[in-house]
Write a structure and sequence with these properties.
two-stranded parallel sheet, 105 residues, globular, alpha+beta, 5 helices
């Protein structure tokens, strides 16, 4: 586990390197990915730099709601489908069918 303060320090250091975009957190269930239980605190703690867009990974509507609520992230959507049912089940607790339905297909 990496502490919240260390995550913030790393992101702030990366912000000084000239990167245009940094994915700083993942809004995922802490039950499955405990190291991101502090996603909101990490976003709140970073020092945004001009010209850098900060994003967060959202795998579902609840994650997107959390990302929007921070008020500090660039919100840009894309839909990705996965060809592996095993990965979807394990990583996103989803099926190909439900994932395609959410994508509007």
């Amino acid at each position: 586990m990496i502490s919240t303060a260390d995550k913030i320090a790393l992101i702030d250091a990366l912000s000084q390197t000239g990167l245009a975009e940094i994915q700083v957190v993942a809004f995922v269930t802490s039950r499955r990915v405990p190291q991101w239980a502090d996603a909101e605190a990490v976003v709140a703690g970073i020092t945004p730099q001009s010209g850098v867009h900060y994003t967060g990974l959202c795998l579902n509507e609840q994650g997107l709601t959390c990302a929007i609520a921070t008020g500090r992230l660039k919100i840009e959507g894309s839909i990705n489908l996965c060809a592996s049912t095993a990965f979807l089940a394990r990583d996103q607790n989803s099926t190909l069918e439900s994932n395609a339905r959410r994508a509007g297909r």
